[in-house]
methylmalonate-semialdehyde dehydrogenase (CoA acylating)
Amino acid sequence: MNTAADRPAQAEQSNAGVRTAKLLIDGKFVESTTQEWRDIVNPATQDVVGRVPFATKAEVDAAVASAAKAFQTWRLTPLGARMRVMLRFQDLVRQNMKRIAQTLTAEQGKTLPDAEGDIFRGLEVIEHACSIGTLQQGEFSENVAGGVDTYTLRQPIGVCAGITPFNFPAMIPLWMFPMAIVCGNTFVLKPSEQDPLSTMELVELALEAGVPAGVLNVVHGGKDVVDAICTHPDIKAISFVGSTHVGTHVYNLGSQHGKRVQAMMGAKNHAVVLPDANREQTLNALAGAGFGAAGQRCMATSVVVFVGASKDWLPELVERARGLSVNGGTEANTDVGPVVSRSAKERILGLIEAGVKEGATLSLDGRDVTVKGYEKGNFIGPTVFSGVNTDITIYKQEIFGPVICVLEAATLDDAIALVNRNPMGNGVGLFTQSGAAARKFQSEIDVGQVGINIPIPVPVPYFSFTGSRGSKLGDLGPYGKQVVQFYTQTKTVTSRWFDDATVNDGVNTTISLR
Ligand code: NAD
């Protein structure tokens, strides 16, 4: 088991004086031998905060081999022992939350309180993993035929892998490896190459909590490493979270190679506002959910549909957005930090430009923002487009930045039809004081996660994340009960015991009728 004293070894400075993300193979944090490295850049300052290797094929193979070997003993480790590792892990994450949040903000850009929220949401999944004793129970039916009992075993499946996006470097890895491991599997994690340092700090704590050598491994990299995971014969299941384009590739390639794959992907989340909604609460919710984390949440509200007379609320939405504070994530009272990279900023500015060219009204323009003390930061201020229709690029593409598109609908039915025509189905919100409208909406809307007067309806960990349509491939979602199904194989045992050693039913060649 690693201890706190080992931690600096992983975080040590390389010769160049910059922290490097290590690989974790067979319980050891090792420097990659690759020639291919990428800088990890602070989005608020452009300072290089670390470097990440693109692991070689041999390193990926070594990580998988270590996981395959560890599976032989970890699968036999008693449930209670696995659970107690998670109990220690949740305690360590809680104790180290503020330290890890500092790293997360430095490499990802989100505000410090939001970074703590990112870790906290993952911590809740570790807490839930501590309930594995009941979560992994099988079923039993006595006397299904004369003297015959049937029961199920929920057995771990082997080496599982996880591929994670940049926007939640704590929460999303924690959606994956704690639940996979506590079910008795071993794991190979491929964090986002944009911000792997906070993920690695969580991984260090997992080892300190008692995760044995080989049970959790980490490789860094991009497409080559991901493809090596998708095609590796010894990996049984892959959890992916990221864009629709990459998720579809991972789902197809992994499935073709015989793996279970769950892919949680891109989004275009609508908030439908009825005129009877609580005005203040609704406008606050829209601004918070649209611009928090600079719009880089898969559940961010990126489209507002004002129904009927609620269209008159647009100026107030714009004012609320204008009032948000754009600043470095470490500054107190910051509402909107920088976007993750220069290329992300360029991409978002390009989409704003397209919105203008294609005829939408730029009701609030966040392009021209400079932040004192952070002049080089990748900042974009809150941006609101009104008069948007469903045919233009800013509506059709996921912007993944601090941009809200406002549309109008005459009736709730029209709004439901509009949302259901969008190919994405991650999250949606309805704002109303009418129970009847809410009931109709939740029944007819074709989106995985529905919020009623809740702008970002991410389920707590004892439910499962349930995106649908273009936002998800695979049947079972991350965490909750569904992921226990994903990370286990059900075996059905039908048994009969004789208390009389001389019993003889004779040969029966027909199917029994009772
Ligand atoms: P991304 O798809 O670019 O990257 C995700 C992972 O795939 C990373 O680990 C990356 O290294 C790898 N990758 C990137 N390009 C690849 C390629 N060509 N081939 C193979 N692997 C590749 O996503 P991102 O930009 O890191 O994250 C933002 C996206 O993630 C948004 O679309 C957002 O909606 C989505 N997201 C979805 C959820 C959800 O639960 N539905 C949650 C968070 C983020």
Notes: The longest helix spans residues 57-74. Confidence is low (pLDDT under 50) at residues 1-15. The CA atoms of residues 62 and 271 lie 46 Å apart. The pocket of nicotinamide-adenine-dinucleotide is lined by residues 163-168, 190, 192-193, 222-223, 226, 241-243, 246, 249, 264-267, 298, 398, 400, 426, 465, 467, 471 (CB under 6 Å).
